[in-house]
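Lab notebook, bench 4. Still working through the backlog of constructs that have no structural model yet. Next entry is a single chain of 480 residues. Request: give me the structure tokens for it.
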Amino acid sequence: MKGTIQNGLLICCAGWLMAICQVGVAQTDPPVRLITDADYFFDDGTIRPGFAQIGFEKDALGELPKRGDRDTDVDTMFAYAGARFRCVEPEGHVIVCGFRFKKSISRQRSLGNFYIDTDRGGKKISYQGIMRIDFCVPGNSGSGATVRQAGLFTEIVIPEHTIVEAYNSSGHRIAVTQSTQDRTSFMGFDSSLPIAWLLVRSNEYLQTDRLNRDFAIDDLVFDELVADPERRGVAELLVVRGDGTEDTADAAELGLPGLKWYHGPGALDEKVHELVEGTMVMLSDGSVLRCEAATESFVLAAAPEVTIPAESVAGFWGGHRVAMYPNVAAGMFAGDKAVLVSPLYDIIINSPPLDFADGTTKISLDGAEVLGQFEANAKRLEDNPEHLTDMLAFHGIKDVNEIATNNMLSIWFSPPIQRAEDTGLIRTCIGEEYVLSGDETEAAFALKERNNDGLTISIGDHTIEIPVANIKLFQMPAPR
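Model written out:
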């Protein structure tokens, strides 16, 4: 393929075909480091400088919650300190060691486990589920925030049976850690990528018939909170102008002069692990597109005439809006290597060519060599080619050549990309992200027109219309 290099982009002679080159510096360390409570606390139990702590011992007024049942809206109870607590599943409770908070966000209650050693009425009190912790601007539960370090204690756990997952603002999983101790286990992250929220859940990926699904949480600790303009949890529409002024409800028009950010309703209520049709593909500018497999390439589902060549693909995952990021150093991708990410493992493989035969995206592992395996809370595992087959079989994949249609795996040919600050962004309701060229950075897409009905973007000579009803988030790119 011939073309010219412009700001990291290979502009092909066809004009509209754009393949983004893989350019970067090899990292010596993984993007996320797993940490222990010793990173946060001194030996006497006091917290180290630079970290905040939520111990669930007082509310914004400094009052001590009553032990046991508490009919309190916990979703925003601790927002004064920078965190919200809720659940993914309905009809649950937020449970911390010694307390059970009945109320969470509207129509949903958070699930956890009430930590109690005695029986009540002959029945042991226990709760199970998925607890979500969102970081927010202190005192403003509707404004999301990010941190680089975060961790918490979990109670009534056993090794490997409970996990904590860290997610970024786009809703992709950037790291996972497993419980390592009996009864009480601390789990935490030190990340080069901003952490927007955490999920605490039982380890459904563990191969066991006796999974301990019970858990409670205790002290949550984190470093400096940084306001996240991508996450505003208002129920109505919201726009933010370049001068910082805001409008909501009917005044929130996509075509508003001076617009900087446009937020669809309920921007914080992301549906984690929601299934979508097709294959989600990340380009090397950070764009995430829903695609379908063609004869020799991916094609954009929103515009089938636009082809995405294999060489511009940073990674892809099938039937699932949430990507699982690899946690290996960028240097691991050198020499035509790729990383296959499952819920618990990173598998480094060699020479994994994309195959578009029969209109189905496949990755050929016939001649691939398993070069290394990594697991959360473990050092590098020994090479074991049989483990790859076992892992894929556990996720229901009988043919190791067909992984793109599985909704629990991601495959990466280069590290996931963080978009440049001057670029714009369109995030759709199904998790697509169109990165828009800024004043200095060329991206795959450019903004052509915006009005109250929606947005028009272009890729080469092709245009794509995105109606306002499909837009979850829009950020204006820096003017060119």
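Notes after review: The helical segments are 385-394. Residues 1-27, 103-120 have pLDDT under 50 and may be disordered. Flag for follow-up if needed.
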